[in-house]
Design goal:
The protein has 260 residues and is of the alpha+beta class. Helix 1 packs antiparallel against helix 4.
């Protein structure tokens, strides 16, 4: 199975399978956020705290190159911790993740059982996207996708199950958190509202808020996008696993009309 990154000491070499939709020589956003999530999860597991929020600022396009990560504990509280992870391409900082971790309490103030109930179709009952849509990027060719509402190639809200089949890092299994974060980057594409032959769009940031840890490797994205003034937009999505919703996603969008 091809990997997205191959470790090289403390660095990570992107493979051709990391290529994104705008250029095969530029990283898919999911690869960028996935690599930073790996570092956050390692630190969270060591602390025993739960990941409650992840905010990714994607500062510049990242080529298919070799990367390194640096982490810093910004706040070391008894009930909450804040971690910052930076991603570097040589001397250039490509982006960063700010992670909020909280202590895990023994009980909840209200019954969370409604979150465990899901009436959505399972991935086995979904349908794959058209072949041309699956070829939008080298990275996406390694993501098994099953639509249960809407269509990737048509504007409008949609819902799709996704599972990254290739390991994010060679020799390592993809964790449920990593599956959730890499899927979340597709929220703007799942719920896109424009004809992509006429418009381009980017999400220079993405935030995820967790109600509980995700489970399993299949992640359901239920996404919609709204347009604002002067090229602004906002994508919101709910992430679910087979047990129901577990996180909310927000993406600030920027639209630009393609040149004729």
């Amino acid at each position: 199975m091809p990997a997205i990154f191959v470790p090289d000491g403390n660095r990570f070499c992107a493979t051709e399978h990391a290529g994104g939709p705008w250029s095969p020589d530029m990283l898919q956003g999911s690869a960028t956020t996935g690599l930073m999530t790996r570092e956050v999860e390692k630190l969270a597991n060591a602390s025993g705290f739960a990941v409650r929020r992840l905010t990714f600022d994607l500062w510049r396009p990242a080529g298919v190159k070799t990367f390194s990560v640096e982490s810093e504990l910004l706040r070391d509280g008894r009930k909450a911790k804040t971690i910052q992870v930076k991603l570097f391409d040589d001397a250039n900082e490509i982006g960063r993740c700010t992670a909020l971790l909280t202590a895990q309490g023994p009980e909840s103030p209200v019954d969370p059982s409604p979150l465990a109930a899901s009436n959505d179709k399972p991935p086995e009952d979904g349908v794959p996207p058209p072949a041309f849509a699956q070829k939008w990027s080298r990275y996406f060719q390694n993501v098994t996708t099953r639509l249960i509402e809407g269509a990737l190639e048509k504007p409008g809200p949609a819902a799709a199950w996704m599972r990254l089949d290739a390991p994010m890092v060679d020799g390592e299994a993809n964790t449920p958190l990593m599956q959730a974060v890499q899927a979340a980057d597709f929220a703007s594409g799942v719920g896109q509202i424009v004809d992509m032959r006429e418009w381009t769009f980017i999400n220079p940031e993405i935030s995820l808020y967790f109600l509980r840890p995700p489970q399993g490797d299949w992640i359901l994205i239920r996404s919609r996008t709204r347009s604002g003034m002067n090229g602004a937009g906002l994508t919101s999505a709910t992430l679910a696993d087979r047990n129901g919703p577990f996180a909310e996603v927000l993406q600030a969008m920027s639209f630009e009309r393609r040149e004729a």
